[in-house]
């Protein structure tokens, strides 16, 4: 058993690694242009080049992948020669990066003319003091240029070259800002996905992680409730259909389930809104969040999203349960029990139940993949602020880091539940355990 | 189904008509399959005869200035009627009109063409890619199999909707991206199926015979193995066609489908959903039900054929 779990866990890690490569490959290496996607197609070539340099998009794919996965602060630290630290600003909810000087003070650097570097020192109370630095800071590098490594005001480690008149472009809220004295080389600072920092959203300018956490909570709530509703209902109805094979109950349940599975999520969502909101006017057709407790104050908002998710899942699990039940009821040991004259309820509950449940329970857990697809659509239909609608919004705005992070969260959930399903299945069915 | 190889025995070859009847017999024998077939054919006919442009080859090039005469669609997809904004169904506009005053039925009928062209194309591409990978993995086995299956397992681990979103976000919406998205998500499943069929067929005597004759592996894979695995593959393809329609509808609905003014069904739903709570459900309803009936038809067909196939075993 342990051997089996270790083997499965290894293949899970491999799956996650390959999945991360795939997601990264499609979003960052594929011929789409992130600069134009994020900033619009009116940007000039200088602006595009500057954006790419500041965000490290002009670097080789392998460097970017490593930075995305495990961060870049450690490479930057060796370049700057001093430790770096990340601070969280409560006011504008953004991260800032600082160099830790030998005496413990934090500082950043910038220059306006490429000659005099300015050191911005952070005081313990959060205010900043600017001082000009002398020419002695320029160090000659291997190629003979006078250079200086520091951390910019925007959170990149950067290399300035003395006397160079480079320009950088930054899109502020009002307009493009053009400033002289730009660094020659940037290392965007990031902790990396594995250390809990999937980057800063190009769209909102805020850390992706911050939005992600609330969204994950909301989605787990919705998905969890739906799961708790679907599972017993589908098993019970499936058993009912299986035990009454060929009767009108069976035919009704089977054809309804076929209909429910074949109907796309957005169709059933729209039909439910039509029926319950527009015609009967009993349930709200959209989820509106005004404060953190909205969902608990008005739980009726959750009914239609859950019902939609239930409809999709119900059909599939019901059919599996039915088939499994029918098969078990035809086995010899059930016939023996019937010939012994045991009452029917006892046969079903004591002898058939456990064996008939094996297939559907595994299917349900493996089916988390489908539930995820359903959740993306259902959240978009009802405007529910979960991870699914987040990944959709991010995809619409081509917010690369946000799509990557949300997709990876979904993939991690789906891969782990599959491992869980495998373990449960081997536990339930010793015959395949040691293969 | 009939696995007898009649290749070298032309005298035994039945007439074209008999062969056609034999080929469609699983369809006519199953009520479920027949019902599905009728539902699919309904949309095929609407798609074919929406207007006359398909029957005038001179008009097929992009820059021709042909004016199509609407048949079943009744109007053109982009024709907007002055003053007819968000109207309920009438005799003139069977399904009402949308926000731009365009006839919803005309849009649905024209959209049928996009759906019915893109779904089979993407499934065929997925079949080519997935089928070849499955054949190679199953036939060569060992490390080739190991590498291919590991990568495909990883791809199956990614929920397909995420694959769609990631690809569409990266490459932007177009016909090509949608085909690519469906291929990337469909191919691993096809490969796994073809691989398991290959593993089974590989052990048959006629494969051993071909190997002894000294045929190349590619000949054996594509001429000996593939044709004998066609039954399950075709049923799987039919289900996948349903998924593809499903996926295109979902993408359009999420706003990631073809750019406007494309009349594909998902886009019709997406345009109509904003007016759903405003009391004009016709756009959303028409696009939704079209998608649902086509998907259901394809599923029913696959289900019925599967039953027939199991009977032969």
Strand-helix topology:
The complex is a heterodimer of chains A (435) and B (313).
Chain A: H1 2-29, H2 34-39, H3 45-54, H4 61-70, H5 73-80, E1 84-89, E2 94-100, E3 106-111, E4 117-122, E5 128-132, E6 139-140, E7 146-151, E8 156-161, E9 167-171, E10 176-180, E11 185-188, H6 208-243, H7 248-262, H8 265-279, H9 294-297, H10 303-329, H11 332-339, H12 344-366, H13 368-382, H14 387-396, H15 400-428
Antiparallel strand pairs in A: 1-2, 2-3, 3-4, 4-5, 6-7, 7-8, 8-11, 9-10
Helix pairs in contact in A: 1-15, 6-7, 6-10, 7-10, 8-10, 8-13, 10-12, 10-13, 11-12, 12-15, 13-14, 14-15
Chain B: H1 16-29, H2 31-48, H3 104-140, H4 142-157, H5 160-171, H6 175-201, H7 205-213, H8 217-228, H9 230-253, H10 265-273, H11 282-312
Helix pairs in contact in B: 1-2, 2-3, 2-11, 3-4, 3-6, 3-9, 4-6, 5-6, 6-9, 7-8, 9-10, 9-11, 10-11
How would you characterize the overall build of this protein?
- The complex is a heterodimer of chains A (435) and B (313).
- Chain A is an alpha+beta fold and 435 residues long.
- Chain A folds into two domains: 43-70 and 72-189, no CATH class; 208-428, MetI-like fold.
- Helix content of chain A is 56%, strand content 13%.
- Chain A has helices spanning 2-29, 34-39, 45-54, 61-70, 73-80, 208-243, 248-262, 265-279, 294-297, 303-329, 332-339, 344-366, 368-382, 387-396, 400-428; strands at residues 84-89, 94-100, 106-111, 117-122, 128-132, 139-140, 146-151, 156-161, 167-171, 176-180, 185-188.
- Chain A has a five-stranded antiparallel β-sheet with strand order 1-2-3-4-5. Chain A has a four-stranded antiparallel β-sheet with strand order 6-7-8-11, covered by helices on one side. A two-stranded antiparallel sheet of chain A has the order 9-10.
- In chain A, a hairpin with a 4-residue loop joins strand 9 (167-171) and strand 10.
- In chain A, helix 1 runs antiparallel to helix 15 (400-428), helix 8 (265-279) crosses helix 13 and helix 13 crosses helix 14 (387-396).
- The longest helix of chain A is centred in the middle third of the chain and has 36 residues, at 208-243.
- Chain B is mainly α.
- Chain B has a domain at 104-311: MetI-like fold, CATH 1.10.3720.
- Chain B has helices spanning 16-29, 31-48, 104-140, 142-157, 160-171, 175-201, 205-213, 217-228, 230-253, 265-273, 282-312.
- The model of chain B has no long low-confidence stretch (mean pLDDT 84).
């Amino acid at each position: 058993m342990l051997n089996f779990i270790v083997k499965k866990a290894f293949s899970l890690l491999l799956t996650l690694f390959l999945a991360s490569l795939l997601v990264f490959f499609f979003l960052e290496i594929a011929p789409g242009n992130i600069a134009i996607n994020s900033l619009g197609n009116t940007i000039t070539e200088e602006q595009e080049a500057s954006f790419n340099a500041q965000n490290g998009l002009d670097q080789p794919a392998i460097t970017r992948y490593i930075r995305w996965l495990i961060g870049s602060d450690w490479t930057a630290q060796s370049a700057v020669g001093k430790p770096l630290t990340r601070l969280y600003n409560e006011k504008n909810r953004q991260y800032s990066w600082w160099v830790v000087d030998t005496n413990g003070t934090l500082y950043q650097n910038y220059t306006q003319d490429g000659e005099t570097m300015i050191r911005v020192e952070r005081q313990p109370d959060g205010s900043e003091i600017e001082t000009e630095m002398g020419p002695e800071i320029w160090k000659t590098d291997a190629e003979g240029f006078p250079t200086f490594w520091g951390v910019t005001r925007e959170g990149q480690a950067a290399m300035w070259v003395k006397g160079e008149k480079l320009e950088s472009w930054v899109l502020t809220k009002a307009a493009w800002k053009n400033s002289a004295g730009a660094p020659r080389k940037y290392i965007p600072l990031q902790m990396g996905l594995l250390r809990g920092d999937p980057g800063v959203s190009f769209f909102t300018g805020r850390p992706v992680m911050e939005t992600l956490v609330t969204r994950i909570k909301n989605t787990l709530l919705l998905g969890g409730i739906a799961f708790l509703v679907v599972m017993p209902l589908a098993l019970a109805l499936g058993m009912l259909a299986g035990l009454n094979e060929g009767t009108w109950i069976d035919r009704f349940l089977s054809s309804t389930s076929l209909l429910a599975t074949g109907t796309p999520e957005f169709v059933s969502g729209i039909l439910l809104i039509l029926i319950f909101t527009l015609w009967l006017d009993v349930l709200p057709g959209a989820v509106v969040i005004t404060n953190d407790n909205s969902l608990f104050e008005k739980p009726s908002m959750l009914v239609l999203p859950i019902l939609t998710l239930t409809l999709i899942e119900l059909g599939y699990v019901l059919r599996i349960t039915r088939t499994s039940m029918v098969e078990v009821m035809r086995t010899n040991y059930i016939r023996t029990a019937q010939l012994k004259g045991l009452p029917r309820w006892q046969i079903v509950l004591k002898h058939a139940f456990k064996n008939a449940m094996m297939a559907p329970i595994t299917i349900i857990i493996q089916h988390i993949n489908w539930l995820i697809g359903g959740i993306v659509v259902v959240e978009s239909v009802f405007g529910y602020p979960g991870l699914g609608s987040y990944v959709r919004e991010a995809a619409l705005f081509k917010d690369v880091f946000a799509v990557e992070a949300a997709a990876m969260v979904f993939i991690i959930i789906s891969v782990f539940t599959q491992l869980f399903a495998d373990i449960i299945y081997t536990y339930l069915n010793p015959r395949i355990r040691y293969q | 189904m009939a696995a007898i190889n009649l290749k070298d025995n032309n005298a035994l070859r039945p007439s074209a008509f008999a062969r056609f009847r034999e080929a469609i017999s699983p369809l006519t024998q199953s009520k479920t399959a027949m019902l599905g077939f009728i539902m699919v054919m309904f949309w095929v006919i609407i798609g074919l005869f929406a207007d006359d442009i398909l029957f005038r080859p001179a008009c097929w090039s992009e820059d021709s200035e042909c004016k199509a005469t609407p048949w079943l669609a009744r109007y053109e997809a982009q024709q907007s009627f002055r003053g007819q904004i968000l109207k309920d169904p009438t005799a003139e506009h069977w399904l009402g009109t949308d926000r731009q005053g365009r006839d919803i039925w005309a849009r649905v009928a024209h959209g049928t063409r996009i759906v019915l062209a893109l779904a089979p194309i993407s499934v065929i591409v997925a079949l080519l890619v997935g089928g070849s990978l499955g054949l190679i993995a199953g036939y060569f086995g060992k490390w080739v199999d190991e590498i291919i299956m590991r990568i495909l397992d990883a791809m199956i681990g990614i929920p397909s909707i995420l694959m769609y979103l990631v690809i569409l976000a990266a490459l932007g919406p177009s016909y090509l991206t949608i085909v690519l998205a469906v291929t990337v998500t469909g191919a691993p499943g096809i490969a796994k199926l073809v691989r398991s069929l290959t593993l089974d067929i590989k052990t048959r005597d006629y494969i051993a015979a071909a190997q002894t004759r000294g045929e190349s592996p590619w000949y054996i894979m594509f001429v000996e193995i593939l044709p004998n695995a066609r039954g399950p593959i075709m049923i799987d393809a039919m289900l996948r066609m349903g998924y593809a329609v499903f996926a295109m509808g979902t993408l359009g609905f999420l706003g990631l489908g073809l750019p406007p003014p494309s009349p594909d069904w998902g886009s019709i739903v997406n345009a109509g959903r904003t007016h759903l709570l405003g009391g004009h459900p016709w756009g959303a309803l028409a696009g939704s039900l079209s998608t649902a009936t086509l998907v259901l038809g394809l599923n029913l067909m696959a289900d019925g054929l599967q039953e027939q196939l199991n009977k032969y075993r």
